[in-house]
Amino acid sequence: MKNILVIGATGQIGSELTMKLRCIYGNDHVVAGYIPGAEPKGELKESGPAEICDVTDCAGIDAVVKKFDIDTIYNLAALLSVVAESKPMLAWKIGIDGLWNILEIARENGCAVFTPSSIGSFGPETPRNHTPQDTIQRPITIYGVSKVTTELLSDYYFKKYGVDTRSVRFPGLISYVTPPGGGTTDYAVDIFYSAVRGEDFVCPIAAGTYMDMMYMPDALDACVNLMEADPTRLIHRNAFNIAAMSFDPEGILAAIRKYKPDFKMTYKVEPLKQNNADSWPNSLDDICARQEWDWCAKYDLDSMTRDMLEKLSARLR
After folding, report:
1. Which fold has domain 4-170+216-241?
2. Residue range 85-93: mean pLDDT, rounded
3. I need a labelling partner for 314 at 20 to 30 A (CA). Which of 163, 171, 194, 279 fits?
4. Residue 56 in 3-state DSSP?
């Protein structure tokens, strides 16, 4: 990678990924793509170039790609699961119509493309424990349907046109930098805010509901390492299972109580979030990512909890 465009650079993943890429490849070589109303701020704005990049505007993004001689696109534009369910047509327009534009631009300009998938691409018929890399998906949400389509369309462009497409299936992502943005797994971020503020936490997910989760530093490493991987080793491309930890609300509560023993949690289950969670796997088997590009998470539940509490406490002060 020499010149990189991050579309969705002010979002949950993009805001941190853009800064990481600038640290690795140089500030001037990483363009922060954003939509009007979500302009970069602070260090993200000041540290490197930024351009309006709306995935529904093919000509606009093509102009940015040519202007900066882009060779790699991180396409992070998407609505998260809960928001997508309330706006299904918009979710499809951004997630799939937008992806068509990105893939066409990549085909014409010789770019590699990373477009993340998700555990939401699986459905109720999927094996729930140690979900295999290759298995039935059949999601029941528009978010999941769009992610499966993302995987298939990205594979199609690789096989038919030779576009270097790559992807991972992200678990729920936990970060102290960017607040939650409307995902089913967001409770695992919200709970830390409550703990640091000394508030009781009301959990929207039922006790005993396991989901795969990952600390953001590991997710960022996955984005970079997969795009840097030797293409001759890659068999699956779109999209790799990656895993770090799996827990239910009681599990993360217990982890936090090691450091904040008086922290309390009650339940008020939100049906939409719970329905989403019930259709997703408890845990993923990431053996293919380990074998094909040496994937390995660095953080487990305890080390993540310790770091989250420390960093979020400093941030909220």
Report:
1. Rossmann fold (3.40.50)
2. 94
3. 171
4. coil
Asked whether the predicted pLDDT for residue 1 surpasses 80, the reply is no
Which residue in this structure is represented by tokens 């499809």?
92
Residue 247 parent element (H or E):
strand 245-247
Question: Is the pLDDT higher at 275 or at 160?
Answer: 160
The verdict on domain 172-213+245-316 having CATH code 3.90.25.10 is yes
Each domain of the chain, given as residue ranges in start order, spans 4-170+216-241, 172-213+245-316
- pTM beyond 0.70: the answer is yes
Peptide bond into 207 cis (omega under 30): no
- For residue 102, the number of C-alpha atoms closer than 13 Å in the C-beta half-sphere is 32
- Per-residue pLDDT, averaged over 218-235, amounts to 97
Amino acid at residue number 237: R
35, two tokens: 């939509």
In degrees and rounded to multiples of 5, residue 257 shows phi and psi of: -65, -20
3-state secondary structure of 109: helix
- CA 134 – CA 140 distance, rounded (Å): 18
Give the CA diameter of the chain.
Answer: 58
